[in-house]
Design a protein that fits this description.
Strand 13 and strand 14 form a beta hairpin. The protein is globular and about 60 Å long. The protein is an alpha/beta fold. A seven-stranded mixed beta sheet has the order 15-16-14-13-17-18-19, with helices on both faces. It has two domains: 239 residues, Nucleotidyltransferase, domain 5 (2-Layer Sandwich), CATH 3.30.420; 225 residues, 2-Layer Sandwich (Nucleotidyltransferase, domain 5).
């Protein structure tokens, strides 16, 4: 073994952020969490914002920890959630705090675009290959123009959240490919702007910086930043800066066989990798998306409302004075009676923050099902519904792409939900392999290793991650009972 080299991943999710140092000794990758902090949106007036300055402060503290700990990191990479952005004025200063993708300004925006511009969601999909969701960057920009036409005219640059934070660190503006691909602003499967589409929607193309691929060496920390972080020669690298793109790098597959992944967290992103975009009437109808991945691959996937519903339920119980850990909720769900009620996790009722248990109870009452009364019953309802939604989506995915996977790989924080993992294996009738838990950080660091010539390519990165982290295996059980529940689920949601 050679001398261990250290790399710092800063992974920002929709509810928390963390700093993770990855140590590479030439054979294995080890991960060590060095900081963790909350990421809470702020309601100001009628707008929901990200507290971007607080996040930048926490990033500088995280880098300082690594300096004080003597980690001597070679490079730093930032990944975040997708679609959201900050606007800079023509002097390069932030115009306002970025708006949160869950803000209601884009509600019903597809209808507005059809009425105001004569563009249907099918035309937007044909140009970009990105599924129609109200919070897509493209739709947010249309809402920005509708609500205040002067905003984009006054702006000098638009930077996605990881690109904005990289700019704060280095003073260099760039648009990383995987994060830009989430926003429906690029041509399907290409690193080029969808100029004609943007023009039809009155969105200035000069807002966007040059698109760079994962592994781009961006620059070193600004002198003003070094005052807060301490002295470091670390390079800032554009990793696969959409967190799902980094997580998919960590799917522990070997060789070139077909596979399905679920990047499980606040959202569940179920998909596969393809050599190029798949854009046709069926993929549009089922609302699949073609996002950019590392190594020139396409992440063909569907967004499913994931553990957000459980997270919001837990917050509601906390407001009511009832404290439960996630492991406690899972034990309560395990003890609850199975298949008493089901929901459609992707129903718009579950998108906004709020009292999820009440919404679930109202839906179950309205549809003539058993109304869950306890936290265990509520969580069991959510888990079973998610597992059945995974089955439906996996079947669609296989039909649309022709792939024949031997199993499902679950990565990310949700891979720790053992009950949901087993339910997924049962519902889908396929073995489920889970891990690594810190998939996003591992993928982030893998790109840094490639950029520093420690690894050659994506295949080597996956080999390293598979060798470094032991997976867990879940074998399908009671599949006949789940087949019956799937029929009920399909009838309930009308698909």
């Amino acid at each position: 073994m050679g001398r261990t080299k250290n790399f710092l991943a800063i992974d920002l999710g929709a509810s928390s952020g963390r700093g993770i140092v990855g140590g590479f000794d030439g054979r294995k990758l080890t991960l060590r969490e060095t900081s963790r902090f909350t990421n809470e949106p702020v309601m100001l007036g009628d707008r929901l914002h990200w507290d971007i300055l607080r996040l930048f402060h926490e990033i500088k503290k995280t880098i300082r920890h690594s300096v004080l700990d003597g980690d001597e990191v070679a490079s730093i990479g930032i990944d975040t959630w997708g679609v959201d952005y900050g606007l800079l004025n023509k002097q390069g200063r932030l115009m306002s705090n970025p708006v949160h993708y869950r803000d209601r300004r884009t509600a019903g925006i597809g209808g507005y675009i059809k009425q105001a511009y004569g563009l249907g969601t099918d035309e937007i999909y044909a140009a970009t290959g990105i599924q129609s969701m109200d919070f897509n960057t493209l739709y947010q920009l249309v809402a920005e123009n509708r609500d205040d036409p002067d905003t984009l005219r006054r702006a000098g640059r638009l930077l996605f959240i990881p690109d904005l934070l990289n700019y704060f660190l280095t003073g260099v503006m760039a648009t990383e490919y995987t994060i830009a691909s989430t926003g429906a602003i690029l041509r399907a499967g290409e690193g080029r702007l969808a100029d004609e589409l943007l023009g039809r929607l009155d969105i200035p193309t000069e807002l966007f910086s040059p698109v760079v691929k994962p592994g781009n060496l961006l620059g070193r920390l600004l002198p003003d930043v070094l005052i807060d972080t301490g002295k470091t020669d670390a390079q800032v690298i554009n990793v696969a800066s959409h967190d799902t793109a980094s997580a998919v790098i960590s799917v522990p597959v070997r060789g070139k066989g077909d596979f399905i992944y679920i990047s499980s967290g606040t959202w569940s992103l179920l998909g596969t990798e393809l050599p190029g975009p798949l854009v046709n009437p069926d993929t549009c109808r089922y609302n699949y998306t073609n996002e950019g991945g590392a190594g020139g691959r396409i992440r063909f996937l569907k967004n499913i409302m994931g553990l957000w519903i459980v997270q919001e339920s837990r917050r509601q119980w906390q407001r009511e004075g009832k404290e439960y850990s996630f492991s406690e909720l899972e034990e309560l769900a395990k003890a609850a009676k199975p298949f008493t009620c089901l929901i459609n996790p992707d129903d718009p009722d579950y998108t906004a923050p709020g009292d999820m248990p009440r919404r679930i109870k109202e839906y179950c009452s309205k549809t003539g099902q058993h109304v869950p009364g306890t936290p265990g019953e509520v969580v069991r309802c959510i888990y079973e519904s998610l597992a059945l939604k995974y089955r439906m989506t996996a079947w669609q995915l296989c039909r649309l792409t022709g792939i024949k996977p031997a199993g499902i790989n679950i990565v990310g924080g949700g891979s720790q939900a053992a009950l949901l993992n087993q339910m997924t294996a049962n519902a889908c009738g396929m073995p489920v392999t889970t891990g690594p838990f810190e998939a996003t950080a591992a993928g982030n660091i893998a790109v840094q290793l490639i950029a520093s010539s420690e690894l050659r390519n994506l295949a080597e990165a996956r080999e390293l991650i598979a060798d470094s982290f032991a997976p867990e295996l879940y074998i399908p059980e009671d599949t006949g009972v789940w087949d019956d529940a799937y029929v009920r689920f399909r009838n309930l949601i009308g698909e």
